[in-house]
Specification:
By secondary structure, the protein is an alpha/beta fold. The protein has two domains: 2-31 and 286-417, Beta Barrel (Lyase, Ornithine Decarboxylase, Chain A, domain 1), CATH 2.40.37; 34-285, Alanine racemase (TIM Barrel), CATH 3.20.20. The protein contains twelve helices and 19 strands. The chain has helices at 15-22, 34-47, 66-73, 84-92, 109-118, 129-136, 172-184, 205-224, 250-265, 281-284, 316-320, 410-414; strands at 29-33, 55-59, 78-81, 100-103, 121-124, 142-147, 153-155, 158-161, 189-194, 227-232, 274-277, 288-299, 303-307, 326-328, 338-343, 352-359, 367-370, 391-395, 401-405. Strands 1, 12, 13, 14, 15, 16, 17, 18 and 19 form a nine-stranded mixed sheet that branches. Helix 7 (172-184) crosses helix 8. It starts with 14 loop residues before the first helix and ends in a 12-residue tail after the last helix.
């Protein structure tokens, strides 16, 4: 039961720092730690430095903010895009050509056109998209196809995910046929991409996935004669949301992939193939937090703590029942001897950041720090109940704070009614 968890995570902000920030930027707000983001990106590059063509393509969908993209760009990262607006944001940040991996599904023609114009690596999700891409944009010289092995993906006795039930990718037979067809249409260099499991917290996932894709690369080369330029391991390397879980060791993961590469790729003449990754959660998740202030306490059949954030600001707990650790700032050393539901104000009963969570005694005005919101936090927000999205802030290495997205206003919410007179003046 959630309430039994008494282990802790350490915030990267103190109560005093939040009180200082809140004078300029009222709660709720998302905040990201620049120093830790940069250090993690450098460690990622170090872990795969053995592969001369390695590149991390940050998953823009995880944290679509140009300030974050520029920060990672300085560390040599590319971007993984899956929509027109993500392509546009990346272009505006100076990403172009091989800086961009476009991995999408059910793709409109306009999005393929934009990706083609930018010279991005296009990753086809289905064999039927070959002719669609040919007609709406053209077949680029370098192209990628997404593989779905089907079945259930397991590590030992643990079922990690169910690729056979996922809408993404092609069967092996389709992928081989797709490569042959693309070669006939003028493609010269090819990539293989796959995603088998989400948010794995094990050092074994990437090496096992790499082994599957490396063996596939050898088979594809033998059957089609195409040049394999890169293997994209996609995402799936996760973070421990629960405080009692050990984080992934990216150095061990990189070494595991290297062993598979030398075992499978090198002996088969594929030692020059580049390794790509498309991580979002691992790159940003632990280095962001949602900070919110306690507005109310309610005691009926349970004790409820009402805060000024809601599922609009972080919908993972409401959508998935996902766990996010909570720290009551200033009370880190007090006993967690009170059981609370921590809730937002939406007219939905699932608008809860925690259920039956053991926490220190909470008082009105306390600041609540919700951990691990750096990826798929702000990005998944919405405007139900007319609620507005919060500001995003960046904690700089020198301790200063920069606003990297202002909070929405009612005028933003009403802006798409700009064709009528009813709401003019707001």
């Amino acid at each position: 039961m959630e309430g039994k968890n008494t282990m802790t995570k350490k915030p990267f902000l103190t109560k005093e720092k939040v009180e200082e920030i809140a004078k300029t930027y009222p709660t709720p707000f998302h905040i990201y730690d620049e120093k830790q983001i940069v250090e993690n990106a450098r460690k990622m590059n170090e872990a795969f430095a053995w592969n001369k063509g390695f590149r991390e393509y940050f998953a823009v969908k995880a944290t679509p903010n140009p300030f974050i993209l520029k920060l990672l760009q300085k560390e040599g990262c590319g971007v993984d895009c899956s929509s027109l607006t993500e392509l546009m944001m990346s272009e505006a940040c100076g990403f172009k050509g091989s800086d961009i991996m476009f991995s999408s599904n059910v793709t409109p023609a306009a999005e393929y056109k934009k990706a083609y114009e930018l010279g991005a690596y296009i990753n086809l999700d289905d064999i039927s998209h070959i002719d669609f891409l040919k007609e709406c944009a053209g077949i680029p010289e370098t192209i990628c196809c997404r593989f779905n092995p089907g079945g259930v993906f397991s590590l030992g006795t643990d079922i990690m995910d169910n690729p056979g039930d996922a809408k993404y990718g092609m069967t092996k037979e389709q992928l081989i046929e797709a490569f042959k067809r693309l070669k006939e249409l003028g493609a010269c260099r090819f990539g293989i991409h796959s995603f088998l499991a989400s948010n794995t917290v094990t050092n074994e996932y990437y090496p096992i996935l790499a082994g599957i894709l490396f063996e596939l690369a050898v088979e594809v080369k033998e059957q089609t004669g195409v040049e394999i330029a890169f293997v994209n391991l996609s995402g799936g390397v996760g973070i421990p949301y629960q405080p009692d879980k050990e984080p992934n060791d990216i150095m061990a993961i990189g070494e595991g992939v290297r062993k598979q590469f030398e075992k499978i790729m090198v002996p088969n003449g594929l030692g020059d193939v580049s390794i790509f990754t498309e991580l979002g959660r691992f790159m940003l998740g632990p280095y962001g937090a949602l900070v919110t202030k306690v507005l109310h306490e309610k005691k009926i059949y349970k004790d409820y703590i009402g805060v000024d954030a809601c599922a609009v600001n972080l919908m993972r707990p409401a959508m998935y029942g996902a766990y996010h650790h909570i720290t009551v700032l200033g009370k880190e050393n007090e006993p967690s001897d009170h059981k609370y539901d921590v809730t937002g104000s939406l007219c939905e009963n699932n608008d809860k950041f925690a259920i039956d969570r053991m926490l220190p005694k909470i008082d009105i005005g306390d600041y609540i720090y919700i951990h691990d919101t750096g990826a798929h936090g702000f990005a998944m927000g919405y405007n139900y109940n007319g609620k507005l999205k919060s500001a995003e802030l960046l904690l700089k290495e020198d301790g200063s704070v920069q606003m990297i997205r202002r909070a929405e206003t009612p005028a933003d919410y009403f802006r798409t009614f700009d064709f009528c007179d009813i709401l003019k003046g707001y």
